[in-house]
Amino acid sequence: MAVYTHVSAEALAEFLTRFDVGELVSAKGIAEGVENSNYLVETTQDRFILTLYEKRVAADDLPYFMALLDHLAAKGLPVPPAIKDREGREIHELEGRPACLIKFLPGVSLSHPNVAQARAAGEALGAMHQAVADFPLDRPNSMGFESWKPLLERCGESLDGIAPGLYRDLDFALGDLAETWDRQGLARCAIHADLFPDNVLMLGDAITGVIDFYFACTDIRLYDLAVAHAAWSFDTTGEHYDEAVGNALIEGYSQSFPLSEVEHSAFHDLAVGACLRFTLSRAWDWLNTPADALVTRKDPLAFWRRVKVYDPDLATLLPTLA
Ligand SMILES: Nc1ncnc2c1ncn2[C@@H]1O[C@H](COP(=O)(O)OP(=O)(O)O)[C@@H](O)[C@H]1O
Ligand SMILES: N[C@@H](CCOP(=O)(O)O)C(=O)O
């Protein structure tokens, strides 16, 4: 459940008068998602998504996210830009939170993507990377490689409450990765950084929307593909790898954006990095989400287990993966 901030009908009706979008007909809180409060808003003219930004999304970063969405939408990619009010503003305040009214896109996000759907997602990610070649803005990755060790230390020995020995194993894996991380100086660009199946809307095998750009940043282009690969190619426990789905994602990507030899050889390191990033952020949330919070915590070990596929040699040195 992700509705942290309640929006009253009166406040929403008044908010909508700033835009040329008709009058409020209905508004329903959306259960999916974990970061922000989302409402499906229907007006006399259309449907919209109302997002109130919470938790990890800093108001100062919103101009970057909105500019990126505008840039991609202008190039014909299926992303949802924010609706501009009569004065051209996209970023607003509602119930004390930063808020945007966003274009509604059709489609559903999948729990178990198939090979064709993974290929389409890879292709869309490659097309996005092509489209940002002339995107002028930069945003450092606040959840990038340099943040992982500090996040590990903030979680501390409490990690052992999730799995005995997890703190030591994560520390070891991070040290191992630091030896080789981006030694090649791989190409960078604006990346999505969270391209999980729940952030892609589809109808059949066709992509109708790529959403949730709130971790977007400038980072290694191939890392975006590695995140998507780790997110799309395993079951929810992280125990079972679907190689056909993983390969289709990479093949689809390569059709839009061919990978170099160097990128092929660096892929597994970046995928281990993706596993560590989501293990750590999920572990932090696991340890710090109040028991009565109306949000479902995600299993940190599901990403940790994926390391066995991406670096089997490293995994043999990690007792928690035995
Ligand atoms: N532009 C959109 N069009 C249609 N549905 C959307 C759109 N944006 C979000 N949603 C719906 O809201 C849900 C949560 O959105 P998301 O951005 O993933 O939230 P969070 O940032 O909290 O993770 C999505 O799973 C989807 O069902
Ligand atoms: N995709 C991340 C969590 C971020 O949540 P999202 O709903 O904004 O995609 C994870 O699964 O750990």
From TrEMBL:
One of its GO terms (molecular function) is homoserine kinase activity. Its EC number is 2.7.1.39. Keywords: Amino-acid biosynthesis, ATP-binding, Kinase, Nucleotide-binding, Threonine biosynthesis, Transferase. Gene3D superfamilies: 3.90.1200.10, Phosphorylase Kinase, domain 1. Residues 27-253 form the Aminoglycoside phosphotransferase domain. It comes from the Bacteria. InterPro entries: Aminoglycoside_PTrfase (IPR002575), Homoserine_kinase_II (IPR005280), Kinase-like_dom_sf (IPR011009), Pseudomonas-type_ThrB (IPR050249). Coiled coil: none annotated. Pfam families: APH. Belongs to the pseudomonas-type ThrB family. This is Homoserine kinase. It comes from Stakelama tenebrarum. The gene is thrB.
